[in-house]
Amino acid sequence: MVHLGRARVASRVDFEEAEELIGSVDQIVGPEEFTTLKAIGLAFRELPVGTEYSHSVAIAALFPYARSLLNVSRTKNPSWFRKGATFDGMPIERSHFFSSWISLLAEISKWRSTQDDADGVAISIERGDSRKSLGRKDAFDGILTSPPYLTRLDYVQATLPEFLLLKEFDIVPDMQRLRRSMLGSPLTSERPDWNVERLPETIRDLLRRIESHTSKASASYYYRFFSTYFVDLQASMRNIAKVLKAGGSGCIVVQSSNYKEINIDLAAAIVVIGEEFGLRHEDTIEFKSRRSISLVNTRAHHDARQPKSECAVFFRKT
Q1: The pTM is what?
Q2: SS3 label, residue 262
Q3: Cα-flanking dihedrals φ and ψ of residue 4, to 5°?
Q4: Which residues contact 304 (CB under 8 A, 6 or more apart)?
Q5: d(Cα 67, Cα 106) in Å, to the nearest integer?
Q6: Domain limits of the chain?
Q7: Nearest to 130 by CA among 182, 206, 70
């Protein structure tokens, strides 16, 4: 996301430098007809980083290429790739690769910000974890975010092509550790009881309904998954409230979900948790969405396969 964010706000100069960077990589790789992504990545790493933004633009341009390359490793699960999927050993036609890279660079330039180098505006893209810290207190006038939905989608596994590309071209964190640490990860870890007890009563009541459900693993895996999600969401909301200035506004986009026939109104949960930390609910705008992983899962519960309600929840810090 850091590379995509930088590409979104990069200047024209950054894109020009990225194109020069691609040309330099082509020269280092050499005239051979075929090469590999590993060899191209090694050449890319040899070059000094001029600016982080041109570096990120060049990498982000290759994400669609990486995804198309790994399509052969798709499984019946639309968000999953075969275990052990890799780019190793895949022959890459050099001339086609570099011409595609330049074309993809031109494509992503179309959706970058139109406010190019505005006077007095400095945009910074930083990595962080909202459950731990977002910076100094009262730092921001506004916040716009959308947490992972309660769909048990493994976001790390779903973006495997991009991670495999980063492994060759940049630094990539330990994927298993990242999978476990993601908000909404299907790889659950139990939270202490006192963490769950600090959740609002309406959410604890929802968790009790899930825990007592007659379906298999309701009291074990699924209770762990949902309670972990809400505990982590509460930690994120606490830090959002901390860094938002008094009178500052925010918007969080979420999607409803189900556990069997139990409806999970994530927007309502956001409102209740936010109010604990002085985030006054101002409005919720709802719209129907057909974009949900449960809608392509033929084995999902009937209620889970209904169109989802996506909501933009607006609030202001008191």
Answers
A1: 0.83
A2: strand
A3: -65, -40
A4: 257, 258, 260, 294, 297
A5: 18
A6: 2-111, 140-148+183-317
A7: 182
